[in-house]
Amino acid sequence: LATGPRQDNSIFYEIRTYDIKPSKMKEFLEMVNKYIHFRTAHSELVGFWYSELGAMNKVFHIWKYDNFGHRTAVRQAIANDKDWQGKFMSAALPLIEKQHNEVAYLVPWCQLGKPPKEGGVYEWVTFQMRPGGPALWGEAFRAAINAHINTGYTKLIGVFHTEYGLLNTVHVLWWNESPDHRAAGRHSAHEDARVVAAVRDSVRFLESQQNALLIPLQCSPLK
């Protein structure tokens, strides 16, 4: 089924989610902070987070690529990078239980944002929409996102639509000053008739939704 329009360039984002062995999370995060510079020498890291609520023992990281040829070249380069392979990968792989990746584009009406300051928390919201893509549900989904933005309680960082992975999936990344700030904003949104109306229209196309509260690593560009 057609997925509808996307941004008018070839840039895409690879979203990686790793399940880490519960007893090894601290060790894994320390290794990432220590050695990630070997990996970022090859391509741009958008952000790196670990889950605090809504998912256990997971890390999320997003990488930006100019096109698929760029990704192929980067993957070949890191496979031959002795520092990355020897100092990080050889030690990190035994700590990982499962890996999952997706390729996604920013939706055409969204630019990748930045938080107004460091020190907040991120919310990763995954919407599984009905088959048909943005041509079917895009307008209603955009209206629901804009309704939340217009309340002013949260900061939109990005809206990603999958190209590889489970299709008709939309990931929305939000920033808030704190979990309590996010909770207060949610309560306000639930009482805002404009938000309620927009969400009611959008959920006609929704199959499932999952939220996770994420904490950025020290090495994360988004933090």
UniProtKB/TrEMBL annotation:
<dbReference type="GO" id="GO:0005739">
    <property type="term" value="C:mitochondrion"/>
</dbReference>
<feature type="domain" description="NIPSNAP">
    <location>
        <begin position="122"/>
        <end position="221"/>
    </location>
</feature>
<dbReference type="Pfam" id="PF07978">
    <property type="entry name" value="NIPSNAP"/>
</dbReference>
<dbReference type="GO" id="GO:0000423">
    <property type="term" value="P:mitophagy"/>
</dbReference>
<feature type="domain" description="NIPSNAP">
    <location>
        <begin position="13"/>
        <end position="111"/>
    </location>
</feature>
<dbReference type="InterPro" id="IPR011008">
    <property type="entry name" value="Dimeric_a/b-barrel"/>
</dbReference>
<protein>
    <submittedName>
        <fullName>NPS3A protein</fullName>
    </submittedName>
</protein>
<comment type="similarity">
    <text>Belongs to the NipSnap family.</text>
</comment>
<dbReference type="InterPro" id="IPR051557">
    <property type="entry name" value="NipSnap_domain"/>
</dbReference>
<dbReference type="InterPro" id="IPR012577">
    <property type="entry name" value="NIPSNAP"/>
</dbReference>
